[in-house]
Amino acid sequence: MSYGGVTEYTLSFIGEKLLNTRWWDYSDKFLNINGRVSLIYCVMWGLLAVYLINVVNPKIDLLLDKIKAKFNGKILKIIIVVFIIFLFVDCIVSGIALDFYFTRIIVENDLDVANKDKVIEKYNYLYLEDQERADLIYKVWGNEIMIKKYPNVTIRLKNGELVLAKKYLPDIKPYYIKFKR
């Protein structure tokens, strides 16, 4: 199994266990492991890695050498730290946005999930107690925005079943076109 396959499996596992979501499902593919990885995609990740190492990486090394020649090491370290902080904040905000979205979908569609009473309590706090807060959440992380950003995000029901969140908002179409097989 390639490093890409291991990474893909790990991210799928973490997404499902921590976020109750499943970003992809290879259950219908040949030689899959729990629907998280498939032999064909592991081979593809391996081929992509060879291409990146032999073709792309040398070009990136040249670019980095040019950047190092123009900026001193201290400025580069500051830029890297700023990017890391930005990515960290983006992950936190994305998690909060998904939490708001899941809360909305669960309560508005009366889904049977674990700790449903806490979800209802959170919904009441977020959407019913303060109209300005609810308006801001809908403006920044409304259903259409969330479906376009996370078209395949799922919610785990109490019985363990994973359901696509967009199933409950069929009028909103994701930004991509899905081709039929």
Write the layout of secondary structure elements.
Elements: H1 3-19, E1 32-33, E2 37-38, H2 39-70, H3 73-108, H4 116-128, H5 131-141, H6 143-149, E3 154-156, E4 162-164
Antiparallel strand pairs: 1-2, 3-4
Helix pairs in contact: 1-2, 3-4
pLDDT under 50 segments (min length 5)?
none
Total of DSSP H or I helical runs spanning 4+ residues: 6
Helix and strand content put the structural class at mainly alpha
How much β-strand is present in the residues? 5-15%
Q: What share of residues is helical?
A: 55-70%
Question: What is the strand tally?
Answer: 4
**C-alpha-based Rg, rounded:** 21 Å
Strand/helix succession: HEEHHHHHEE
> How are the strands of the largest sheet arranged?
1-2
> What is the molecular shape?
globular
What's the N-to-C terminus distance? 27 Å
Major sheet description: 2 strands, antiparallel
The pLDDT mean sits at: 87
What's this, in brief?
The chain is mainly alpha-helical. The chain is built from 6 helices and 4 strands, in the order αββαααααββ.
What does this structure look like?
The protein is mainly alpha-helical and 181 residues long. The chain has a domain at 72-150. It is built from 6 helices and 4 strands. The protein has helices spanning 3-19, 39-70, 73-108, 116-128, 131-141, 143-149; strands spanning 32-33, 37-38, 154-156, 162-164. The strands form 2 sheets. A two-stranded antiparallel ribbon has the order 1-2. It has a two-stranded antiparallel sheet with strand order 3-4. Helix 1 (3-19) crosses helix 2 (39-70) and helix 3 (73-108) packs across helix 4. The longest helix is centred in the middle third of the chain and has 36 residues, at 73-108. The radius of gyration is 21 Å and the shape is globular.
